[in-house]
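Exam revision sheet. Question 4 asks you to relate a sequence to its structure. Input first:
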Amino acid sequence: MFKVLNRLLRTKVITSSIDELSESFKDFPSIDASLCPNNCNLCIERCPSHAIDKDKKINYIKCTNCRLCFDICKFKAIELIERPIIINENSKNIEMFRKQFKDSVHIRYVDTGECNACLFEVNATSNSFYDIDQYGISFVASPKHADVILFTGSIVRNMEKPFLDTLVAIPKPYLVIAVGNCACGNNMFVSEYAKNNLPDNDFIDVYIPGCPPNPLLIIKGILKALGRIK
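Answer key, structure tokens:
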């Protein structure tokens, strides 16, 4: 026991802030088309998720962070930046929500059918390194105690009703945050038998794309939804 206590006393504080970590989490490719020769479309042809269009623009949601385009570009036209977080401009909830819940929120997490990669990243936000609680953000077991619904996965058919029941149970006003490419609308199950019957995803207020997004990006997405960072 004394050895454990001694090690704990010798260990410095490992919890890090967003500002300290931001520089080390630049993993999203950005293309400067002016540096590309007219006849070079190698990145478009080789992209496994077809995230690069003919104008050399990258779809935030389709990109899976494989960085193949960055590795194969011979013209140094691609740099790595921090992945953007997307706010639904049509959302009517965000402004009202920010007035009431800017400093502290409780989150109900829902796994709607995924590979568990995003689940692991969401879990990591609560460890002692990222420590999401330092920002006044905590996870709760019931939607009735929550202010935010954060979900991962593509809302497969068997999870459609439980997910919609969760949206009914949570008090208003609330926000819905989609974490990961599948939740954001680009997923491998889009044409499979397990797909849901939801007409659209207009109920989502904040999109945090990635396959999977890292814990820092998830925390930043929540803080951006609250209006605490730009």
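Marking note for examiners. The chain has a mean pLDDT of 86.
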